[in-house]
Input
Amino acid sequence: MKTKSRERAFALITVSLAVFVCLLITEGVLRLMEKLPQKLYLDYGDAVDQDYNPGGLFKKDFDEEVIDFYGKPVMMKTNSAGFRNEQEFGVNPPGGTVRVMSIGDSFGGGYRLGQTQTYTYLLEKELNALGFKVEMPLALAEDPYGALNYLRRTGLSYHPDAVLQGITIGNDFLTVTSSVSGMWKRLSELKLTPECQIPKTWWNLTKWWANYGRFHVRVARLILKPNRAIASYMGQYREPLAMDGLHGLGLFLKNPPAEVEKAYEDLFNLIRQYSEELKKKNVPVWFVVFPQRFQVQAEDWQAAIKEYMLKPECFDLEKPNRRIMQFCEKEGLACFDPTPGMRQRRITEGKKLYFPRGDMHWNPDGNRALALAILDDLKGKIRQLKSR
Output
């Protein structure tokens, strides 16, 4: 009897070890397969230069296939100045053509997107199809602070009739206040208050680890196909930073700390200065808000609550947009918020608008959704330009 029990125990241990080894090997293979396409193709970052060119931060005359977010190659091209356009731009726009320079960070630059998938390309194509006769040079900049410096240096030498400037909710607040007020160190250590997280009891932490494993263990992710919350730039999940460069959760707090209020103040002062400087050059600037994925896709907010152990009652998901639009109205600035339109398109069409695995960027459908959401606003502004 003892012998049979030992045999069963030995068999059970042997099978368990075999399963564990198989899972371990499968996990390794899946991780390797993730990295393999990155070895075969260039990536978006390979097109970015170390300093500004006349057309922004992209390298001049870049013409290569780069990897998209799904591991497939897409074409990425820049012209001789570094604009992400195939066409060349003279110092002045052609007669009868309205030149709207589109400036943004990796959202505006078309992170891991093909040449014809960026919202700038789609807007230019749609506007011309409607008879507006528009050209839209696409310039990459780190944030509005870097964009303004770029325009001072070389951008305005291309004599744009207007500038379309993106504002990314999250990292633009962090990088602008770091540049203006030198707050990077403080903000990189500022955590959400414990009052806005669920208690870290044994049971809550057990559930958190189970949820965390669904996303980070490749075998589990392959089988379960979970919806991943927006990732953390700093890798802080159980104790998230208030001003993490990706999610910027602190911006949504109903009662934010002073450092977050300072980030709002610095950004607002910058876009006021940005607008005033360009107004002196007779160049209007139109600001467009880039929303967070959990503002657009309701399931992403539910995922964020679990991944970051949040108390949802502490947060107001409309707050950054509302404050930006109120500031713009008060200052007489032109600002577009595509969030409601993108949210509605997500519901009606049922398509994901952001890349998977918690990435903060829009996929091709997201770029299309943004372009359609601000198209009417842009048409109205261009008509005003032509009537001047």
